[in-house]
TrEMBL record:
InterPro entries: Ig-like_dom, Ig-like_dom_sf, Ig-like_fold, Ig_sub, Ig_sub2, Ig_V-set, T-cell_Activation_Regulation. It is a single-pass type I membrane protein. The lineage of its organism: Eukaryota, Metazoa, Chordata, Craniata, Vertebrata. GO terms for biological process: cell surface receptor signaling pathway; cellular response to lipopolysaccharide; immune response; negative regulation of T cell proliferation; positive regulation of T cell proliferation; T cell costimulation. It comes from the Eukaryota. GO terms for cellular component: external side of plasma membrane. Residues 17-132, 135-250 form the Ig-like domain. SMART domains: IG, IGc2, IGv. This is Ig-like domain-containing protein. It holds the Pfam family V-set. Its main location: membrane. The keyword tRNA processing does not apply. It is found in: Cell membrane. Keywords: Cell membrane, Disulfide bond, Glycoprotein, Immunoglobulin domain, Membrane, Receptor, Signal, Transmembrane, Transmembrane helix.
Length: 290
């Protein structure tokens, strides 16, 4: 504050200079959902004259401009290709000193640290905000192969970890072989699609319906056949990402079901030795056999 005094030493005017401002940002890292939107905060403590103001949003690891406000207006033509059409100022908030940035259609590559720099004729301020690694679509299974006898039922594991609603996912189980991929089982538009199954797996392959809301898309395969041996792939697709895991049915043994075993009793044969064999032979030669 500047004070002006008259000749008698009394102040008659006090002015608050239009210099010095505080810039606020995020209190901590932000977590973004793939395909969703995230707001990167950047605002000053009071409105500033827009004509002499410049706001520059960039990543800290690149010179690419995420967005720019200059000469009293947004400059979308200055944006890097990766952000054009996705990064926006909140136009109605700018006169209030709010230069937060709305980033749409979040991608995995958007993770990182961003800086918002506000320039006036007198000074500049900077704040930073981090977008943590965007939530990915994580699909897991079991590394070990599954062993079974022909005719038995098996379960092939496939679990999905994501914040995307499972009804928005498409899940495909496929059998991979030299002839290409065979569609074994399909989940799409929030429900099972048995009509899409290959006829070889019709009524044999199914999801555990009650487990789907938990992200469990494991498959039950009934009455395993010899030709089922090999690799199966569980593919999961969202609007913005895809991931998969594999499961393998190892060499199949023969089923014991229906096998008839005939048991033949074994007889115990005991040796019988005549202790007077030599005497008999001698008496026989002498003609004295009785």
């Amino acid at each position: 504050m500047c004070l002006f005094f008259n000749a008698l030493g009394h102040d008659f005017m006090s002015l608050i200079p239009v210099v010095g401002f505080l810039l606020h940002g995020s209190a901590g890292p932000l977590t973004a959902r793939l395909g969703g939107a995230v707001l990167l905060p950047c605002f000053v403590d009071r409105p500033l004259p827009l004509e002499e103001l410049e706001v520059d949003w960039r990543r800290t690891d690149s010179d690419t401009i995420v967005h720019l406000f200059q000469d009293g207006q947004s400059r979308p033509e200055s944006q890097g290709d990766a952000y054009r059409g996705r990064a926006h100022f909140l136009s109605q908030e700018i006169p209030k000193g709010n230069f937060s940035l709305l980033l749409d259609g979040v991608r995995t590559a958007d993770a990182g640290v961003y800086k918002c720099v506000v320039y006036t004729e007198q000074e500049q301020r900077e704040t930073r905000v981090e977008i943590q690694e965007a939530e990915r679509l994580v699909v897991t299974g079991v590394d070990e192969p599954v062993y079974a006898h022909a005719g038995e039922d098996v379960t092939l594991s496939c679990s999905v970890d994501t914040h995307v609603n499972v009804t928005e996912l498409q899940v495909e189980w496929r059998k991979t072989d030299d002839d290409g991929d065979i569609l074994v089982l399909l989940y799409a538009d929030g429900e099972n699609r048995p009509e899409s199954q290959d006829e070889r797996y019709s009524r044999r392959a199914e999801f555990f319906t009650e487990e789907i809301p938990k992200g469990n898309f494991s498959m039950k395969l009934r009455k395993v056949r010899t030709e089922d041996k090999g690799e199966f792939r569980c593919e999961v697709h969202s609007d913005t990402d895809s991931a998969s895991t594999t499961a393998r049915i190892a060499a199949l043994g023969e089923s014991l079901e229906g096998l008839v075993l005939t048991c033949i009793p074994a007889y115990l044969i005991l040796p019988c030795v005549w202790p007077f064999r030599d005497v008999l032979q001698l008496q026989s030669r002498q003609g004295t056999y009785h």
